[in-house]
Write a structure and sequence with these properties.
Blueprint (H helix, E strand, L loop, with lengths): L1 E7 L5 H13 L5 E4 L13 E4 L8 E4 L5 H14 L4 E5 L8 H11 L2 E7 L1 H4 L16 E6 L2 E6 L8 H9 L7 E7 L4 E3 H4 L5 H9 L3
Parallel strand pairs: 2-3, 2-5, 3-4, 5-6, 8-10
Antiparallel strand pairs: 1-9, 6-9, 7-8
Helix pairs in contact: 2-3
């Protein structure tokens, strides 16, 4: 179940840092696994394990590999089998970058009891924040939203760049103060890719799916 869904300024970690502090104070052997943490290890005061393709300098146990590949998760699942689930999982500004986001969300639920997720918001990904030549961040593959306690993924498609309806929506819905989408989850959560990950069967259907985003 996901809860406390909100749009906020990018990098606002006030709520989750307070929660992590409380959890750690109540359990000295508290464990936190951070997925994709090497570039910005903001959980450094709490993290005990990291999964990432990049190396990091933190004195914690690392599972190194591409999180879009099942192989790295086999290592983590074996560790969980021997030691039990992690108390908490953090995944921030990672899911938008990777190809197998649904796999990663499934794995996070398998290895932890609860956690925190943050991704760029739809207000950011549908705006020309980097250049007038493209929308959102050029290296991102997904636009995410939440609805009715569900986490929903929309592949970034080329038609969004010039479709007037979406450009007008972006102009009328500025991203300032809403650059990031974040939520907490407990027990489990999944990523629902629109239309069961099939973009079809026709133009009208595709546009209808994306209209739900705005």
């Amino acid at each position: 179940m996901i809860y406390n869904q909100k749009f906020t300024s990018i990098g606002d970690r006030t709520d989750v840092l307070q929660l992590l502090s409380e959890l750690k104070s109540n359990k000295p052997d508290f464990t936190l696994i951070d997925i994709g943490a090497s570039a910005n290890p903001w959980t450094r005061d709490f993290v005990t394990h990291i999964v990432d393709i990049e190396s990091n300098s933190l004195p914690v146990k690392s599972f190194k590999g591409n999180i879009s590949d099942y192989e790295v998760w086999e290592q983590v699942l074996e560790y969980v089998k021997q030691h039990g689930k992690f108390d908490y999982a953090s995944c921030t500004h990672t899911l938008e970058d990777i190809s197998a986001a649904k796999l990663v969300c499934t794995m996070i639920s398998k290895i932890s009891n609860q956690g925190f997720v943050a991704v760029p918001s739809k207000f950011a990904e549908l705006s020309n924040l980097e250049s007038e030549q493209w929308i959102g961040y050029i290296h991102h593959r997904w636009i995410y939203d939440t609805k009715d306690e569900k986490f929903i993924g929309y592949p970034k498609q080329s038609f969004l760049e010039n479709f007037k309806e979406f450009k007008d929506w972006s102009k009328n819905n500025p991203r300032e103060g809403r650059d990031e989408l974040q939520f907490f989850w407990k027990d489990d959560f999944t990523l629902d890719v629109i239309n069961n990950d099939h973009l079809g069967p026709n133009i009208d259907a595709v546009i209808r799916y994306y209209r739900k985003l705005i």
